Amino acid sequence: MRLMFVAFLLLACLARTGRAEPPPPDVIGSRLFPPELIMGHQKEIGLDDKQRQAIVAEVQKLQGQVVELQWKMQAAVEDLVKLLDEARVDETKTLAQADHVMNLERDIKRAHLGMLIRIRNVLTPDQRTKLAALRGK
């Protein structure tokens, strides 16, 4: 996981043109609400028991999915590292393994996004408006 993070960080640094630019706005994240934000302000937004239970169930469901995917991804990263440690790196095998790692990362991100969407759908429009304002503070 750390290796992939470092690799992506390196690629991001190489892609920069040297200009200091502000990070782009998170246009997706700004429309979704992490469970921590909701739970931290549940009384302020008037979260009811049914909503709370639905959110807790979604978080628990995600945790179960992600733990298994993280184990698979860690094993896949170890295999990728072994390929990169070879005296002569087999580009085809290494890129195929990198694709496998990135597919697992995609699966984790997709599961997380799905959870955030389902949580958002549990909230009322008024609650979403209040959370958006609270996030800005």
Give the helix tally.
6
Helix-strand category: mainly alpha
Strands, count = 0
Radius of gyration in whole Å, from Cα?
Answer: 19 Å
Q: In percent terms, what proportion of residues is strand?
A: under 5%
Largest sheet: none
Average pLDDT, all residues:
89
| SSE sequence, one letter per element | HHHHHH
Distance between the termini: 32 Å
Net shape: elongated
> What fraction, in percent, of the residue positions are helical?
over 70%
- Residue stretches low in confidence (pLDDT < 50, at least 5 long) are none
Main traits of this protein?
137 residues; single chain; mainly alpha
Describe the overall structure.
By secondary structure, this protein is an all-alpha fold. Helix content is 76%, strand content 0%. The chain has 6 helices and no strands. The chain has helices at 2-15, 35-40, 42-45, 49-85, 91-122, 125-135. α4 (49-85) packs antiparallel against α5. The two termini are 32 Å apart.
Give the topology.
Blueprint lengths: L1 H14 L19 H6 L1 H4 L3 H37 L5 H32 L2 H11 L2
How would you summarize this macromolecular structure in one to three sentences?
The chain has helices at residues 2-15, 35-40, 42-45, 49-85, 91-122, 125-135. With 137 residues, the chain is mostly helical.
